[in-house]
Structures are given as structure tokens and as C-alpha cells.
Amino acid sequence: QVQLLESGGGLVQAGASLRLSCSASGRTFSGYPVTWYRRAPGKEREFVAVSTKSGQTYYTNSVKGRFTISRDDAQETVDLEMTSLNPEDTAMYYCHMDQFWGPGTQVTVSS
After folding, report:
1. Measured on CA atoms in the order 111, 13, 39, 53, is the torsion positive or negative?
2. Judging by DSSP bridges, how do beta strands 91-97 and 105-110 pair with one another?
3. What tens digit of pLDDT does each residue of 25-66 get?
4. Most distant CA pair in the chain: distance in Å?
5. 65-74 pLDDT tens trace
6. Residue 81: beta bridge partners?
7. DSSP letters spanning 58-90
8. What is the average pLDDT value for the chain, to the nearest integer?
9. How far is CA 1 from the centre of its chain?
10. Per residue in 37-76, is it b (16+ CB within 10 Å) or e — as a string?
11. C-beta of residue 110 within 8 angstroms of C-beta of residue 12
């Protein structure tokens, strides 16, 4: 059974940094694109960043230059380094691979 688990969320002040991590059990990330999404209160889920199976990365415009997605297939983790956080980044962050989703980790940024 494949399970994804996010970690690293928390409550921070504007301007701070956080590093989210997504780990997998039951399957490695190797050969799959892995995507981070987020859902802010009262809003639709939105794409944040993706690491393709070849390691290419893409970001939504609002996080370009601030967020970095990286993958370590050997360690079975995909991280999302988030810097210069602002209150608009407040959301539940989810990791996605293939048909599988993690339960999410909450990021709250206070002004």
C-alpha cells in the first residue's frame, strides 16, 4: 500500500522560511513526477511546484524565486524549501504522486 506523508509545516512570521518534506512508503518516487499543492482557507486547491521524473522543476508564478522543490529518490523524499513566506502562503500543503495524496501539513504565516 502506497502512502505519502508530509511534514515540516508550522506557524511562522512573515519573512521566515520553512522546509516541507514528503516521504513515501510502499513505493519510491523514482520514475514519477511529484507535485506539491496547497489549499488556502476558502479557496480551491492550487498547484505549487512539481519535480518531473527527470528532475525538471516548475513553479506557480506566485512562488517563483522563493520556493524550491527538490527530490532525493534514494532517500524517498521530495522537499519544498520555502523562503520569504508571506500570509498569502498560509494553506494546507499536500504532496501528490501518481494517484496518491498525503494528508497534508499546515503552514500558517502571520503578518
Report:
1. positive
2. antiparallel
3. 988 888 899 999 999 999 999 999 999 988 899 999 999 999
4. 40
5. 999 999 987 7
6. 19, 68
7. EE-GGGTTTEEEEEETTTTEEEEEE-S--GGG-
8. 95
9. 21
10. bbeeeeeeeeebbbbeeeeeeebeeebeeebebebebeee
11. yes
